[in-house]
């Protein structure tokens, strides 16, 4: 099937845009039509074409980048953006922070990069192990600030989950309540202004952890004349899977914010990130029992989330995304809903329009 959208307009100079193909062209009236001092209307049209067979070819290869070129561009960005004595990177031992810290060392040198660990008593015990592994691998200074006392002061640990005696019990309870009785994601429902009080209070407690981490990071950075480097990427931003005003969402520099997670994995392989870190699942380390935020929240792998996001960003008809990407229709529907909610909620401060 061929799907075509025509836009017809009168222009003195018309522009033909085909963003799906990554091509921009301009059409102008033939010279024979030109008449000095006289504006001759010129009828032009722009069109967007999607072919089903082209859509079927969308795969991980579609998101392939030149990692060497991307690394050099990001290094230049970090160098030009660093205006203080150095940078501090919150490190969790996950893929994203490991790539960002490595890029900062490549750009600025290890003496100007500090890794900041911000553990808390309900956090993933593996996080410190991998964060220390990264710091040793990069030979950078690593600072540890336990944020548990601050979280206790906020009442974060007074949530019902804290009264379950073991981490295993906490994880089982979280997995039980991540999906509503209707089969919907409770995480998405809360972001959409829905969900019951118990779930809403629980997520508020978890989100507080990332916001306290941001406060701790900026406190350390400002005392030491450093800039905070964020580790959020496009896949998180487009799905709202990073906490608004949290440690991943706000920073002075955001070196990988333009890349999908799939592309960050390509950078990681080029940069020589330790294999144990590459094999880790995308664990947010704020909610017990959530070991893969894409699979556990959306029921879709990180790679498939990226394919659907790519299709949405490139204006594929939503009704045909499942066929184009090979992702199940119910998975596509969950991602599309979260994409819309995240887009609405991502604005940091709504303002009155003139």
Automatic annotation (TrEMBL):
Protein origin, superkingdom: Bacteria
Gene Ontology MF: a single term: glutaminase activity
Protein name stated in the entry: NH(3)-dependent NAD(+) synthetase
Family the entry assigns: Belongs to the NAD synthetase family.
GO cellular component: cytoplasm
Catalysed reactions, as listed in the record: deamido-NAD(+) + NH4(+) + ATP = AMP + diphosphate + NAD(+) + H(+)
Keyword check for Oxidoreductase: no
PANTHER family xref list: GLUTAMINE-DEPENDENT NAD(+) SYNTHETASE, NH 3 /GLUTAMINE-DEPENDENT NAD + SYNTHETASE
All copies of domain NAD/GMP synthase, residue ranges: 76-155, 207-341
Enzyme class name: ligase
Pathway note: Cofactor biosynthesis; NAD(+) biosynthesis
């Amino acid at each position: 099937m061929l799907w075509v959208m025509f836009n017809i307009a009168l222009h003195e100079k018309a522009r033909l845009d085909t963003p799906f193909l990554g091509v921009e062209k301009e059409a102008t009236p033939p010279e024979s039509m030109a008449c000095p001092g006289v504006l001759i209307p010129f009828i032009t049209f722009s069109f967007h074409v999607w072919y089903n067979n082209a859509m079927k070819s969308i795969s991980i290869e579609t998101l392939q980048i030149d990692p060497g070129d991307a690394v050099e561009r990001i290094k230049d960005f970090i160098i030009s953006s660093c205006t203080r004595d150095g940078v501090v990177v919150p490190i969790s031992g996950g893929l994203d922070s490991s790539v960002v810290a490595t890029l900062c060392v490549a750009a600025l040198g290890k003496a100007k990069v500090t890794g900041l660990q911000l553990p808390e008593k309900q956090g993933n015990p593996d996080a410190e192990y991998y964060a220390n592994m990264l710091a040793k691998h990069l030979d950078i200074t690593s600072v540890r600030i336990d944020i548990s006392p601050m979280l206790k002061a906020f009442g974060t640990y007074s949530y019902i989950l804290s009264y379950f005696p073991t981490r295993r019990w906490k994880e089982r309870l979280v997995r039980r309540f991540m999906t509503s009785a209707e089969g919907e994601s409770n995480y998405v429902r809360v972001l959409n202004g829905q969900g019951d009080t118990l779930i809403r209070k629980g997520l508020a407690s978890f989100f507080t952890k990332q916001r306290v981490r941001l406060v701790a990071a900026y406190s350390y950075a400002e005392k030491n004349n450093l800039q905070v480097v964020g580790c959020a990427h496009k896949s998180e931003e487009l799905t709202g899977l990073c906490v608004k005003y949290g440690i991943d969402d706000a920073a002075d520099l955001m070196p990988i914010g333009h890349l999908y997670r799939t592309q960050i994995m390509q950078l990681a392989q080029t940069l020589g990130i330790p294999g144990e870190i590459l094999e880790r699942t995308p664990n947010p380390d704020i909610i017990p029992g959530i070991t893969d935020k894409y699979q556990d929240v959306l029921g879709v792998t990180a790679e498939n989330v990226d394919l659907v996001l790519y299709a949405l960003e490139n204006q594929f008809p939503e009704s045909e995304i499942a066929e184009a990407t090979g992702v199940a229709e119910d998975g596509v529907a969950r991602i599309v809903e979260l994409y819309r909610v995240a887009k609405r909620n991502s604005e940091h401060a709504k303002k009155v329009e003139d």
